[in-house]
Amino acid sequence: MNADTPDPNETTATRRQRGERIAAELSGDPDPALLEALDREFPFLANALTSYAVGEVLARTVLDVRTRQLALVAAFAALGLGDFVKLHGGYALNAGVTEEELKEVVYLTTIPAGFARAVQASQSIGELLASRQAA
């Protein structure tokens, strides 16, 4: 079994702990506000997100964190999910992605998703960059 093969004996609690650690590393915040709010209002969703999406999928090592976050920005941009573009764009910047690389992903979005989705993504990335410059 390689490191990216799920262990069928691993508990949800173990995956959740790993997910919380990864979320903290990605966000640079030991208690990410998004997960805290979800946990308070939607505990089932928070547990599923943290233990599966973060604790299993984002824990995989085939792609490095930087590449994985760029791929997620591209996917969310193509889907028109601006809040997630902004969230994962921030994680990408924390992982060493440059502003120019994020902008390039926006440009590439025009091919599979069209100009409207690329414009939406550009607005999200613009907001993200502005908020980081103000901080």
| Number of separate strands | 0
**Major sheet description:** none
Question: Rough shape?
Answer: globular
Helix content estimate: over 70%
Structural class per helix/strand content? mainly alpha
| Global Rg | 16 Å
What is the beta-strand fraction?
under 5%
| Helix-strand pattern | HHHHHHH
* Poorly predicted tracts of residues: none
| Average pLDDT over all residues | 94
Separation of termini?
Answer: 44 Å
What's the number of helices? 7
Secondary structure topology:
Elements: H1 12-27, H2 33-41, H3 43-57, H4 65-79, H5 82-94, H6 99-113, H7 115-134
Structural features:
135 residues, mainly alpha, 7 helices
Task: Tell me what you see in this structure.
- There is one protein chain.
- The protein has 135 residues and is mostly helical.
- It is 76% helix and 0% strand.
- The protein is built from seven helices and no strands.
- α4 packs antiparallel against α5.
- It is globular, with a radius of gyration of 16 Å.
- The mean pLDDT is 94.
Overview in brief:
This protein has helices at 12-27, 33-41, 43-57, 65-79, 82-94, 99-113, 115-134. The protein is an all-alpha fold and 135 residues long.
